[in-house]
Amino acid sequence: MHAETLTRNEAIPLDVPALAMRGIGKRFPGVVALDGVDLTLMPGKVHALMGENGAGKSTLIKILAGVYGKDSGTIAIGGVETELKTPRDALKKGIKVVFQEIALISEFTVAENIFLEEYPRRADGSIAWKTIRAEAKALFDRIGFAVDPAARTGDLPVSQQQMVEIARALAHEAKIVVMDEPTSSLTPKEVELLFVVIRRLTALGIAVVYVSHKLDEVFEISDTVTVLRDGRHISTKPIGEHTHDSLIHDMIGRRIENLFPRSRTGSAGKVALSVEGLSTDTKLKDVSFEARAGEVLGFFGLMGAGRTELAKAIVGYDPIRTGRITIDGTALKPHDTRTAVSLGIGLLTEDRKLEGLMLELPVQQNMSLAALSSFAKAGFVDEGSERSAVQSFVDRFRVKTPSLFQPIKNLSGGNQQKVLLARWLMRGLKVIVVDEPTRGIDVGAKSEIFALIDRLAGEGLAVIMMTSEMPELLGLSDRIAVMAEGRLTATFSREEATQERILNAAIA
């Protein structure tokens, strides 16, 4: 990090709202996405925008970014009413949105990405490459973050790619920077660095919109928070006037008495999964552990520690070099997913959209996929039996869907995750591995997923949970295993585990 003194953009008056959206309405066929929503941003402040999935946050951001046109309402920037008809309009007005899926060209250099819309040129019209690199460096100096302007963007970690997006915002003299779930793929250390940069942006007079499901982050970085629910504005308050409970209540319209419910009363049963000396060519090094029926075994590690690689290896998805895996006493041989599923182990993947769901297909086909053979009669699927089984899990897991034939892509993240859980349970399991089960899920849906995980363990499954979220790790796990650089470095009982002990083991 650099220590340069920041100079505020004097063109940004601090007493005039950087943005005033009033009565914003937006409809899609059959859906009211926004209904008279207000949002006011002040220069030099961090304004959190919160709400459950489907609350209208993304629609409001896309209107601000010029991706969608509003149906009603007004938008004023710096006190001047304006129209944002295209993304270029928004950029020219000083609005930069850093979306969760970072929009950079991976083959271009950092400097080329920063000035992509308009390269500085020499008198003869040719691109001034030296100027581009020098100006890119100056932008990074302003935010206090060192990134090589000549580096290939695709080679950078996500945290540095975010800094490139922020530098692009400064290159366009942004007055408003929107960050959409900016920490979803960052390590705790990278989150700290991002927060330093956000505070530097506000010192420059820039208004920052911070969109996140992570309550602890919102309380740490925000000055003000606006809550949307079902497309309507619910509240705008200084963050100091909220507690965790009051913020959750505004978001979901009810109180969650216990975010991490624990209905299990019995002790863990027999060993359901045994892993001995597991190593792979790419990451894992001599990993050994046991998971018992009726327990939640949590795995924690910083980014790159090997949690996801372990999840995929123990269900036969990724090849192993050495080691032995047994499920309920039977060896996983051959080491492949077909054998693993037949022995009773399933995987809820980290990336549900890329690796778990068939987005264009309906709820019914997504849920019944792993159990189709159980509905087969004379080589054909008995659709009546299939539909009945799917409906029973929809009811049991309280999946919110207008019908079993609704395309799965139209469901919220929490309901998609319930469908994937049901897919494996419909098959019949002894062990389920859940990798980042609440990634991209709002707090209301999280509480339901947590309750399901607790219930599954209570029904006798061994649940192996890979997570980077410390609260859910400590709240749900009976035992906690910690990984660093592909190795298992420590295992704690529920009583022994503390955040400090876990983090110390994670950096061992």
Question: What characteristics describe this protein?
Answer:
alpha/beta; single chain; 2 domains; 508 residues; Rossmann fold; translocase; membrane; six-stranded mixed sheet; disordered N terminus
Q: Would you mind describing this structure in some detail?
A:
This protein is an alpha/beta fold and 508 residues long. It folds into two domains: 234 residues, 3-Layer(aba) Sandwich (Rossmann fold), CATH 3.40.50; 236 residues, P-loop containing nucleotide triphosphate hydrolases (Rossmann fold), CATH 3.40.50.300. Helix content is 33%, strand content 24%. It is built from 17 helices and 22 strands. The strands form five sheets. A six-stranded mixed β-sheet has the order 6-7-8-3-9-10, with helices on both faces. A hairpin with a 2-residue loop joins β4 and β5. α4 packs across α5. The longest helix is centred in the middle third of the chain and has 16 residues. Pfam families: ABC_tran. GO terms for molecular function: ATP binding; ATP hydrolysis activity.
